[in-house]
Amino acid sequence: MPDEKSGAARAQVDLTTCDREPIHIIGQVQSFGCLIAVSADWIIAHASANCAEVLRLDETELAGRPVTDILSPQALHDLRTRMQMLRMQQSAVRVFGYDLRGDGQKYDVSIHQSGRLFVLEFERRGTDGGDVHDPGLVQALIGRVQRHGALDTMAQEAARGLKALSGFGRVMVYKFEEDGSGTVIAEARESGMEPFLGLRYPASDIPKQARALYVRSLLRIIPDVAAPVYPVQPETDPNGEPLDLSLAVTRAVSPIHVEYLRNMGVAASMSVSILRNGQLWGLFACHNDSPCYLSYEKRTSVELFAQLFNYELAQMEMTDELGDIDRSRALHDNLMPQLSNGCNLFAAFEDLCSGIGDVIPFDGAAIYSDGQYKAIGSAPAEEEFLGLVRFLNTTPPGQVYCNSNLINRYPATDGFADRVAGLLAIPVSRTPRDYFVLFRREVAKSVTWAGNPEKPVEPGPNGLRLTPRKSFEAWKEVARGHCNPWKQREQRTAEALRTTLIEVVLKLADENNAARKRAQDQQELLIAELNHRVRNILNLIRGLVSQGKESVKSADAFGEVLDARIHALARAHDQLTGSEWNWSPLSVLIGTETEAFLAGKASRVVMGGDALELSPAAFTCMALVIHEMVTNSVKYGALSDSSGRVEIRTTLNGDGTAALSWRECDGPPVKAPARRGFGSTLIEQSVLFELKGEADVRYRITGLEADFLLPARHVRKAEKPAGPVPDTRARQAPAVPRLSGGAMVLEDNMIIAMDAADMLTQLGAEKVETCSGVTTALNLLEQGGTQFVLADMNLGSETSLPVVERCRELGIAVVLATGYGSTDEVAERFPGLNILKKPYTVEQLSAVLETMAAAENGG
Fold this sequence. Notes:
Blueprint: H1 4-20, E1 28-30, E2 34-38, E3 44-48, H2 51-55, H3 73-83, E4 93-99, E5 106-114, E6 117-124, H4 135-146, H5 151-166, E7 170-176, E8 182-189, E9 200-201, H6 208-216, E10 219-222, E11 229-233, H7 255-263, E12 268-276, E13 279-288, H8 296-339, H9 349-357, E14 364-369, E15 372-377, H10 382-392, E16 401-403, H11 406-409, E17 422-427, E18 435-440, E19 445-450, E20 474-479, H12 488-551, H13 555-578, E21 584-585, H14 586-598, E22 605-609, E23 612-614, H15 616-635, E24 645-652, E25 658-665, H16 678-691, E26 694-700, E27 703-710, E28 715-717, E29 742-746, H17 750-762, E30 767-771, H18 774-783, E31 786-792, H19 801-810, E32 813-818, H20 824-829, E33 834-837, H21 842-856
Parallel strand pairs: 22-24, 29-30, 29-31, 31-32, 32-33
Antiparallel strand pairs: 1-11, 2-3, 2-6, 3-11, 4-5, 5-6, 7-8, 7-13, 8-9, 10-12, 12-13, 14-15, 14-18, 16-17, 17-18, 19-20, 21-23, 23-28, 24-25, 25-27, 26-27
Helix pairs in contact: 4-5, 4-8, 5-8, 8-9, 8-12, 12-13, 13-14, 14-15, 15-16, 18-19
């Protein structure tokens, strides 16, 4: 006997060999159908051992006999006509409900080509004709899938729809990961069945051969795990080659897989492939705890559902890819203005990190350029990064480099592994020396496995082969030293960002001289403006001192008045500088300026019109203009004596622009200044030059007049000031009635039942049961736990009135839904019964609940 180590080694060898084998061929068929393979001259080359039973034949030896011995001439003619279609498609052609032998027994037939032979498979139909293929039902179920835009909710709705369509007790959506393992991302199951949602299965659970089969054959079904299988006779052709049954519907599965299902307690199963770009993306895995046979026609509906889901999946992924492109473009457009304003990458580092963080999540970031290093968040120290740079210089130049397990490639990561587990490095120069790097911390990846993935092979009844695990108890695998992987779309975004950064670096190099000249010109302008502002402030303070002496009687009072005026002036300048990057009310700006210059006489400045707010750029400009207007009015205009006043009016025009008019009256005579100083130039030119607006200043003898037009991008309507507001609120809508506890939907149309269940859940029901017959509904009522019933009146061959009557007896709230116009008889039999007309919405259902609640409360 080999020891455990050597036995495990041989098992691993067997598994490796198994993975290298071609598609596994089983020369047996399941009992729900039979199979014959015929040559081009319609001589039977192979036949399954159960052909006599399925086709009702007396003789069992079929090989070498002509097909005309078992099929009628008309059937042979019709099948040959259908087989003509095989030239135009690779999949099988199908015939449903056909009388093959002229004895009234109907069969579903599938025909495909295997090498030089044609393979015909027959499934006998029951007396009821079998399930009917209903494309409308499939469309309705896919329509529910289309409501969802996220993968998890779309997959959950698909599992729910396929469960309703197929009748299997459990339907899972199984998605393959990059390492070949698979995760159950959605599940619909009967109550009482063990949940598998979230479990991950090792790659060895579905070998490469089986995955290849899933790509070629979209649906595999085992109606009864315990049913016998029948060999194909003879096993090989004259050349010693077995019949390739890869595309056969009735093909038996590996006994390994049968054992696997039995260990799970599964009595019937069905797998439907989910393909993306010709690759196996995942599976619909269907299980039942009792035998479950689907007619070929119903399986065709299942295949159609899966194909339409494939299209929806492709559409969703294409939308995500287009979204990635849009996000990359938006990131470029947002970063370029920030990085192209003359600052270097170090100055824009925080803005760069803020912009990219919305597209590529990270825990830390660093920039290294021209020998300088800057970092934020969870990142290496400078001396640690210098060694990392030498490692990055060994990666392919001019390309984004990412790694989710850095310590595996760069062992020195161990020194800062508490901060960094993976990185994404973006070169920002033509040579591999300067980098912008994003870091991610370690994430202990806890994966819920369905069994131990390190022990996929155990000795079993089929020898040392791929034997399913005996236990499905979940356990945790924890991987250390890894960060969240860098997704492909994140890498694509990083490539686009690299182009942006290179473009910025080159552009900044070209703009350095121009930027320095602009800075010098701006400095000279600021010096001139500062000189002018200081002179105005000094003159203003002198005026405050001289005017204050005449209005106070003591030195203490004079000091208080002077102090208050100087503080008001300081507040005006704080308003100018402290709010420059926020939208600010124009009225506050004007009020602050006039209060600073006029103290208690600010009421001589009257404002009217629309309340406006200014953009940051417009606020800075208008603060200077208003300051100069008020200053000049105090010095020379209407506010220079005790009788004058200023009227300011603002108007928001229909095109979004705003007009500001300034009118001085009742002051001393006004004349145009003999010399145009800086202040006059500021008033007349600032709005035109800085805001691209208009300014018109007129020096009339009766008073100064000025009109300003501000562009729409710099002005908006202001919020109303706080204060008493008339109570114009309408009567509050009553609260939406809320259900509680369990509810039941009695409806014979599956789609309507599912929609009604969703409505009741939305209205607060904790659990909603659906059923289509009176007997089932009455049984559910007797089990208890139902507080509300929504019943369709017409259930096809019966009505729901017995259920309504039983609800009345038990005191359970019930609403009757009906499509009939007249309900007088029902209303007479059940006084006070609430009746809902079809089609109904959740709002209409809510209104009925409100009526019921009001009646219950005596309202």
